[in-house]
Amino acid sequence: MYYGSRGIVGLIKPTYRPGSLESFIRLMPDGVGFIPFHVGVTAGTNQEFQDALAIAEKKVAQLAELGVDIIMIMGAPPTMVRGHGADVEAAEQLHRKYGVPVLTATIAQTEAFRALGIKRLVGITYFMDDLNRKFANFLEDDGFQVAAMKGMEIPFKDVGKIPPEEIYAFAKKVFVEAGGADGIYMLGAGWHNLPVIELLERDLRTSVVSSIPAQVWATQKRLNIREPVKGYGRLLEEMP
């Protein structure tokens, strides 16, 4: 099956950090093609995220000219810092302007929460508290109860070096201290959290929504593909 026979996905990644792009492509089915672009976020600051969406629009225009079937704007922070509804408004405006369906990471993730029946969630991130408050407000304004939104203390440039076992331990600690929840939200695609999703779900008897699996799930839905993937949690295995 040739690349693109089941659809071509335009990807707009916030950083140049390796990992998330490769994971997204690996988890998508054979026959799907990809054209990636990058925004160039380097420090992970509020101002960078505020500016990122305007840069992403230029990439959307390029991808539309290249004839992709759908565009995924990866990375939740650039839309979350703008407040509730900014993601849907931006996606709809870009769709109207360029004629290609546009998804954001936040749209994919909130759809995943609802598909898995998550109403009360615990969030873990690798950002500072000022941004974590914005992230929590974004989700609460969308109707979710955020029991916690805690960040690991690590420089933004080193996020990809966090061992998966440390991510597991941090998620478990925040979850237990918050008194449990319907789900754990791992915000951000920069860390290597895929190996611990299934383990957390099994040990804590909950559901886990992580950036890349949610985006893979939502993209498959838009392309009318249903190809479950085992080993990365309920969302991709059950494809609700």
3D architecture notes:
The chain has 240 residues and is of the alpha/beta class. Helix content is 45%, strand content 19%. A four-stranded parallel β-sheet has the order 2-1-3-4. A four-stranded parallel β-sheet has the order 6-5-7-8, with helices on both faces. α6 links the parallel β5 and β6. α1 packs across α9 (211-222), α5 crosses α9 and α7 packs parallel to α8. The chain is globular, with a radius of gyration of 17 Å. It starts with 7 loop residues before the first strand and ends with a helix.
Provide tags for this entry:
single chain, 240 residues, 4-stranded parallel sheet
Helix-residue proportion? 40-55%
The number of strands is 8
Name the helix and strand elements from N-terminus to C-terminus, one letter apiece. Answer: EHEHEHHEHEHEHEHEHH
Q: The biggest beta sheet, please? A: 4 strands, parallel
Q: What does the overall shape look like?
A: globular
Q: Order of strands in the sheet with the most strands?
A: 2-1-3-4
Terminal Cα separation, in Å?
Answer: 26 Å
Low-confidence blocks of residues? none
Instruction: Kindly report the average pLDDT value.
Output: 96
Strand content: 15-25%
- Overall structural class, as computed from helix and strand content, comes to alpha/beta
Radius of gyration: 17 Å
Q: What's the multimeric state? A: single chain
Q: How many H/I helices?
A: 10
Please render the helix and strand layout as text.
Layout: E1 8-15, H1 20-27, E2 33-41, H2 46-65, E3 70-73, H3 77-80, H4 86-98, E4 102-104, H5 105-115, E5 120-125, H6 129-141, E6 145-151, H7 164-177, E7 183-186, H8 197-204, E8 207-210, H9 211-222, H10 234-238
Parallel strand pairs: 1-2, 1-3, 3-4, 5-6, 5-7, 7-8
Helix pairs in contact: 1-9, 5-9, 7-8
